[in-house]
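Regression test attached.
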Amino acid sequence: MSKILDELKYSESHEWVKVEGNIAYVGVTDFAQKEMGDITYVDMPEEGDDVLAGEEFGALESVKASSELISPVSGTVVLVNAELEDAPEKVNEDAYGAWIIKVEMSMPSELDKLMDAAAYKKMIGE
Amino acid sequence: MAQLSYLPHTEADIKAMLERIGLGSLDELYSDVHAQFLHKGPYALPDAMSEQEIREWFASLEAKNAKLKVFVGAGAYDHYTPAVIPYLCSRSEFLTAYTPYQCEISQGTLRYIFEYQSLICELTGLDVSNASMYDGPTAAAEAMKMSIACARKKTRVLLSKALLPHVIKVVETYAKFHGVEIGYVPATDGQTSLEALKAELAKDDVAGVIVPSINRFGIIEDHTGFADAVHEEKGVLIEYCDPSALAVVKTPGEWGADIAVGDGQPLGLPLCYGGPYVGFMAVKKEHMRKMPGRIVGQTVDKEGRRVFVLTLQAREQHIKREKATSNICSNESLMALWVTIYLSLMGPEGLKQVNKLSSDGAHYLKAELLKTGKFEDVFPDKPFLKEFVLKPKAFPGQMQKKLEEAGFFAALDTEEGYVSFCVTEKRTKADIDALVAIVKEG
Amino acid sequence: MNFGVDTGFYPLGSCTMKYNPKINEEMAALQGFAGLHPLMHAGLTKGANVVYQEMNKALAAITGMYTFTLDPCAGAHGELTGLMIMRTYHIKRGDLKRTKVIVPDSAHGTNPASAAVCGLEVVEVKSLENGRIDVEALKPLLTDEVAGIMMTNPNTLGLFETEIKTIAKLVHDAGGLLYYDGANMNPLMGVVRPGDMGFDIMHLNLHKTFSTPHGGGGPGSGPVGVAKHLEDCIPDLRVSGFHGNFGVILRAYAYILALGKQHLRKVGQYSVLSANYIKECLKDKYKLPIEGVCKHEFVFDGLINDGAHDDVHGATTLDVAKRLLDYGFHAPTIYFPLLFHQALMIEPTETESKETIDAFIEVMRKIADEAAADPQLLHDAPHCTPISRPDETTAARNPILKYQDTI
């Protein structure tokens, strides 16, 4: 069983969002990290880059696969989790602790389109 | 018809195999192919030859080629190949292996690629090398693409006009289709102009700049200030180098370059009419993930032994498909082995000696040619190594013909109206004197 | 420490690991060829000129194309060159909006990657359950923005695209061109010519179909052939430094001379025979997703009985591959194509004897039995190789890429 946190929002491409006012922290779900296996690299945007909801902003890599990261919200990347550059395994160890980007949202209403924990749980069928 | 030894199936084998499959004839294996597409009638091919006939036919073709002492470089250099290299490279464990996907039975290949990467890094002074590219010009084209990926949002790559002509042409071809705009930096007095470079950089759209370490005139370029200028505009500096010469000239690392590319051919590869050669690429660590091509890394196996594997594969076409850093799959692995053995034999001192002998010969030849009074010196104050250009006072056609007849391939025409010469350690003083004597006569 | 075709059977799907004739090596090493400087004018290279002309003619005869460029240095390099020709064709006609290329979902990764390098947008077309291109799914994709389609025939499942005639007509009617990826040309040698099926552009892999050694990953050679109406699209393209991999071209030429018109057909036929024979002898132990006659290769989707029970997970394709190494065989291509989760792609080639093939079949059956009885034995394989399974995760997380990183 994958871990799902009640207080977060979820996207169909298995990203989670934690909202603090106008700021969104984005990471990947516990289910996604399990599917991926040992993550060897997190390809992240640069601070100051704009991201668009539904568009790719980076990728997770394992030894034999690469998986796109899709932004659940639009806005500007104000911070990337530099810790993951040298320690991508943190995504495996604690998917909800290891946020990937911190976004200043330009369209917070987009959050309404995301799933809550119950809906996401239903989607992954666990 | 005699049986061909490459096809071991006997009539009895074929019959037994067809029976097992449940088919009556070989033709039924193609029952899924529309009859219209089954080729009827004979193929317009020569009759099959026996091994002896092949040998004789190749001998007759070989005899038609001129056998000349080569005094031309321009991207392909006639350095000596120690006998041990072809001997080792033709060992079937290396020669007949595929890409080392099954690492448990490919440690030989993986290990030599690791050694190759180490040697290329040592020569270039950079951090990370890939496992090889097709040739120097395509490596430069890959570097051009890579600079666009590294610099982001910038659309133009600058080429020094002092790069070898074939490098410029291949980079231009790739750029045209990849949608990259190419700009040019002219040479002033035989050297890529820093002033002109700065003027182009000021346009704020430059992702990368490719400059030659030793240029088309044979001149060893001074790149003081180049890296700073390029980095100030957030671009990537790419050095195109002769890896043999890197033993004695400043390395890309020392010039502050981000990427080094070039052709490994001068490291003991036969001229072979242009290939197979081996392109190399080395980059600073920060650009590692944007690098095209295979990379071998060191790790441990279950018992903790030091072993080697293909790594960072998520950049490559078999995983990332259209988002890969490049489409390259097959590279020039065996030629990378060739280079690895060559460099291991030579060592730093041996490679320096190759350069010294070549340079001494080239300087002697240039001085002797100028003495004939038939040439003007073009760049008298510029340093060169084994290659140089002169301006002939008369149309050089007659001289070139006489040189060929006397057994020399020399005085290659350049686009600028000069003729170029190159001397490697294979050319003796007697060779040089004989060449000069022909020039004098003509 | 290293396995090669000369060491043992190498049934690597899509790679055509055939015997590398030794005479070819000797011919390519002749000093009269090896000593030629690439900038010598044609008057000095008359023997080499003959090789290029004769190779061009022979490849055209074998494939039904009009003419070839021998400049590309590998298969993917050939793809890129071929796509450049495709774009040049449209650009010359002033048809500038054709910037998309259709690629089947079963294609080798180099196809979409080459398209991207060539500045083309990739549009994927799905395969049917029988492994062939879905013609109905293709139709709506054929807009006036499509430059062409890239196909492998037989495809990466080793299956002949039976609808090729319809596909060719649809693509041509829509103003697009057909590109043939010659990676799977071996079964068609002497039997079917891509040019006759309607392909306009193609590449060959001399290091697969024409017996030149793979050299641990190269050098290869990827000549590109075109139909007559594309002849004038080649000359402007400079894709490699000089004249391509001449040394490889020489080897392939020697091979073609050994085959001649008399033996060519046997290459195709025997490669297909061997593949079908192995398939029939193993399909009671391994899952065969698509029945019917295959070409030079075929794909199993893992074991029928992988030995999974209670808490013990079953033997995977990776396990089977690693166990094969213990028995002295190279593994087939695994986990490709992506259409099946446990893909195991087997290509025997025509140069392996029935004796070798039977030995391989016996071992594959034995491994299937081992898996059913004790999957752990396979999970731990290989047991007899110079090294055991390496830690690839650490290799990728903390890259050590040169000797200098270790000190």
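Expected vs. actual: identical. Chain A has a mean pLDDT of 95.
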